[in-house]
């Protein structure tokens, strides 16, 4: 894969389509409730600004095809991005297909514009080549820096690489470096902690992780679903909760917290994705907090976490400095590890060798 940081020809005056991840939780107006991904996106943006490129930002927010457009415009997130970055961004509010691509030539060198939510057009999630061609009219080359959607076959992730010379961004390079370290030779014992919901997507990941990790600690709603379906762990490597808080099983119990913490304390490599319970509602946040504290306490380990709720808890406990790498991706992080890096967006970039 080619990375834009290694590109040796001048980028001055080049129109660069930059796919970023600013998919933050928002309120009903669309105002961001967190800035983790927004702040991360600035790294590659500033790199391109300093190189004198004309930057056209591509991003999505939420799931407007299922939930409607209300509160899912990128306008307020872009305002926050500009505020944190301390530079101007021109927001183009029209649907992308209605925007004259010649506007990209009018951007000053080092200037930035942002197009509206990619997912306002249903063709984005269909991996439509037609929609990718519309996007490609705005740029001379494409930079992919949204790791969290690398497991999606979408137009702005996959199809566009068939049209434009394509490169990975600075954040993508950091993500893959951190995860490849775990993939290639994780120090043992290696522990994976999997929580949250959606057992239909996470159970295959758990089974894949069993081949390279010593233990998989399972919590959250998927632990409940796992127990309801199978009663007991299907592998000696999968460790299920031994107790819960309340009859509804809204959180792992104190015995489970101690059990999980004992495994975490011995681990040399740790990955964590997903809360251990209904952490938004006290007192069911105690299991998730206990896991975050146990990971932070084991400073000798190499730890990687991902997923919005997981990151939120680490932020709330002010334990960021104790974690080796915080991924912008949740599902993408797990799939990258489980599928040995073979994600659609990664393969698309690796197969691109078009010249500028």
Characterization of this structure:
The chain is of the alpha/beta class. It folds into 2 domains: 4-168, 3-Layer(aba) Sandwich (Rossmann fold), CATH 3.40.50; 176-338, Rossmann fold, CATH 3.40.50.1260. 35% of the residues lie in helices and 13% in strands. The protein has helices at residues 36-50, 64-67, 75-85, 129-136, 170-184, 199-209, 220-230, 254-266, 286-297, 308-316, 331-338, 344-350, and strands at residues 15-19, 54-58, 90-92, 112-115, 141-144, 166-168, 190-194, 215-218, 238-239, 269-273, 302-306, 325-326. The strands form 2 sheets. The chain has a 6-stranded parallel β-sheet. Strands 9-8-7-10-11-12 form a 6-stranded parallel β-sheet, sandwiched between helices. α6 runs parallel beside α11. It is elongated, with a radius of gyration of 21 Å.
Radius of gyration: 21 Å
Per CATH, the superfamily of the largest domain is Phosphoglycerate kinase, N-terminal domain
CATH topology of the largest domain: Rossmann fold
Mean pLDDT: 93
Count helical runs: 12
Strand content: 5-15%
SSE-based structural type: alpha/beta
- Spatial sequence of strands, sheet with the most strands: 3-4-2-1-5-6
For the record, the count of structural domains works out to 2
| Number of beta strands | 12
Quick overview:
This protein has twelve helices and twelve strands.
């Amino acid at each position: 894969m080619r990375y834009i940081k290694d590109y040796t020809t001048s980028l001055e005056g080049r129109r660069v389509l930059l796919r970023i991840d600013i998919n933050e939780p928002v309120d009903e107006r669309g105002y961001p409730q967190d800035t983790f991904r927004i702040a991360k996106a600035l790294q590659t943006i500033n790199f391109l600004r300093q190189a004198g490129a004309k930057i056209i930002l591509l991003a999505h927010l939420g799931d407007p095809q299922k939930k409607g457009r209300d509160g899912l415009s990128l306008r307020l997130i872009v305002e926050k991005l500009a505020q944190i970055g301390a530079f101007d961004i021109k927001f183009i509010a029209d649907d992308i297909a209605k925007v004259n691509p010649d506007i990209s030539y009018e951007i000053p060198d080092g200037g930035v514009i942002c197009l509206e939510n990619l997912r306002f057009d249903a063709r984005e999630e269909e991996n439509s080549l037609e929609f990718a061609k519309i996007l490609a009219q705005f740029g001379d080359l494409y930079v992919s820096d949204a790791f969290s959607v690398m497991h999606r076959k979408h137009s702005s992730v996959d199809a566009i690489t068939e049209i434009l010379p394509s490169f990975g961004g600075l954040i993508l390079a950091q993500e893959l470096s951190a995860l490849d370290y775990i993939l290639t030779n994780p120090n043992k014992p290696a522990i994976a902690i999997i929580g949250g919901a959606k057992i239909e997507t996470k159970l295959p990941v758990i089974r894949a992780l069993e081949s390279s990790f010593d233990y998989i600690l399972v919590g959250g709603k998927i632990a409940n679903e796992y127990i309801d379906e199978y009663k007991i762990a299907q592998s000696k490597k999968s460790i299920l909760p031994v107790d819960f808080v309340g009859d509804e099983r809204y959180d792992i119990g104190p015995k489970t917290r101690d059990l999980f913490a004992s495994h975490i304390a011995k681990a040399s490599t740790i990955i964590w994705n997903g809360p251990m319970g209904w952490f938004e509602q006290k007192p069911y946040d105690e299991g998730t907090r206990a896991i975050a504290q146990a990971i932070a306490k084991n400073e000798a380990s190499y730890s990687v976490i991902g997923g919005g709720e997981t990151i939120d808890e680490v932020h709330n406990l002010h334990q960021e400095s104790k974690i080796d790498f915080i991924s912008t991706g949740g599902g993408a992080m797990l799939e990258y590890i489980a599928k040995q890096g073979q994600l659609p967006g990664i393969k698309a970039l690796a197969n691109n060798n078009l010249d500028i």
